[in-house]
Amino acid sequence: MMERWHNTILQNLHDVEPPSLKGKPVIVHKTGNSATLSWSAANDNYGIKSYIIWVNGKLVATINQNNMAYRLKDLKKGLNYNITIRAKDWSGNMSNEIATTIKMKKQ
Predict the structure, then answer these.
(1) pLDDT in tens, 29-73
(2) Are 37 and 100 in contact (CB under 8 A)?
(3) What CATH number is given for 2-103 in this structure?
(4) SS (H, E, C) the chain
């Protein structure tokens, strides 16, 4: 058991292959001031550690590898929100970006 753990740690130290994210985030639920996004799981040779979410270029969340959904709150009417998501593996390698825009109605 200890040998397997040790070998996994050594492999991760030499892991330079970034995760891969495909597709585009999808808005699965939207209210007057919030929106919930969902996306497909990333692929990686050793596993995903987390997903990192930016709104209009500002880091808003880092969530664990088991969540492929996130709820954005306190969105303002009449504004657009550019969402970017990347996956991070256990070695710190970052995936490509996937992105979408949420357009909030002016009402």
Answers:
(1) 999 999 999 999 999 998 999 999 999 999 999 999 999 999 999
(2) yes
(3) 2.60.40.10
(4) CHHHHHHHHHHHHCCCCCCECCCCCEEEEECCCCEEEECCCCECCCCEEEEEEEECCEEEEEEECCCCEEEECCCCCCCEEEEEEEEEECCCCECCCEEEEEECCCC
32 token code pair: 């007057």
pLDDT of residue 1: 52
Hey, which residues does 37 pair with through a beta bridge?
27, 70
Whether residue 16 contacts residue 87, with contact meaning beta carbons closer than 8 Å, is answered with no
Q: Which of 35, 34, 15 is nearest to 25 (CA)?
A: 35
> Which tens digits make up the pLDDT trace of 28-37?
999 999 999 9
Q: Where are the domains of the chain?
A: 2-103
